[in-house]
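To illustrate the input format used throughout this study, we show a single complete record. The first block contains the structure-token representation of the backbone; no residue identities are included at this stage. The design step must infer an amino acid for every position from geometry alone.
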């Protein structure tokens, strides 16, 4: 105690001052340190499937078993609720089929923008040519 006491930190969950801290696990998807109580609780919830987490898009809290992992092509972190997962999928498929510039449905031929163009989605031939032209 006194001057020999270690610097204490606050638990991210209950905000109580704690000397004995535990690091969160990567799959819990939140940062910070936990007190022993919260650590045990989170661990238990996680294994019982009652652990709750926020959807990465709409922030609604859901049981982790009701959350979906985003597809790797979406290039995002965290977990999604069913609603956001579905709309993300529709959005993603839409982007795959429609030119991100003019919005026209693309036929079989579609073109990926160059990295340096820093664009999302794919382009139809016409827009791709235009982009290329405008960046000369
Ligand atoms: Zn705590
Ligand atoms: Zn959501
Ligand atoms: Zn286009």
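Output of the design step:
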């Amino acid at each position: 105690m006194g001057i020999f006491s270690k610097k204490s930190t606050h638990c991210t969950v209950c905000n109580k001052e704690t000397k004995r801290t535990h690091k969160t696990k990567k799959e819990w998807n939140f940062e910070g340190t936990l007190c022993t109580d919260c650590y045990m609780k989170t661990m238990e919830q996680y294994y019982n499937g009652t652990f709750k987490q926020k959807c990465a898009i709409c922030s609604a809290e859901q049981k982790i078993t009701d959350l979906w992992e985003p597809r790797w092509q979406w290039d995002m972190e965290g977990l999604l609720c069913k609603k956001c997962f579905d709309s993300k999928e529709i959005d993603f498929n839409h982007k795959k089929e429609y030119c991100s510039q003019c919005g026209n449905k693309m036929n079989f031929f579609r073109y990926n923008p160059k990295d340096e163009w820093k664009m999302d989605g794919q382009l139809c031939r016409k827009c791709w040519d235009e982009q290329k032209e405008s960046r000369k």
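Structural context for interpreting the output: The chain has a mean pLDDT of 88. The pocket of zinc ion (ligand 1) is lined by residues 11, 13-14, 16, 34-35, 37-38 (CB under 6 Å).
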